Amino acid sequence: MSADAYRPYVPQKPPVQCVKCRGIHVILNKARHPQTLQYQWRFTCLDCRVAWPQDQHGGEPDEYA
């Protein structure tokens, strides 16, 4: 094996940060919008429990770890 096999993984993009507390303990889940009743992707911060739609944050769901 080469020496590169033992290097830690370096993410290509920075982790998502919470819009309220700026923490990185954020999960992506699919939830039903209360007004339209359509399912949409949203981020939820595990520290302060705020949630916001993924399309307001920018990017695609598979861009973030």
Strand order of the largest sheet: 1-2-3
Low-confidence stretches: none
State Rg.
15 Å
Number of helices: 1
The N- to C-terminal Cα distance equals: 26 Å
Structural class: mainly beta
Largest sheet: 3 strands, antiparallel
* Topology pattern, helix = H, strand = E: EEEH
User: Proportion of β residues?
Assistant: 25-35%
Shape: elongated
The share of residues in helices is under 10%
What's the number of extended β-strand segments? 3
Estimate the mean pLDDT confidence.
Answer: 79
Structure description:
This protein has a 3-stranded antiparallel beta sheet with strand order 1-2-3. It has one helix at residues 54-57, and strands spanning 26-32, 39-45, 51-53. It has a domain at 23-57. 6% of the residues lie in helices and 26% in strands. With 65 residues, the chain is mainly β. It is elongated, with a radius of gyration of 15 Å. The protein has 1 helix and 3 strands; from the N terminus they run βββα.
Element layout with pairings:
Elements (H helix, E strand, L loop, with lengths): L25 E7 L6 E7 L5 E3 H4 L8
Antiparallel strand pairs: 1-2, 2-3
Quick structural summary:
The protein is mainly beta and 65 residues long.
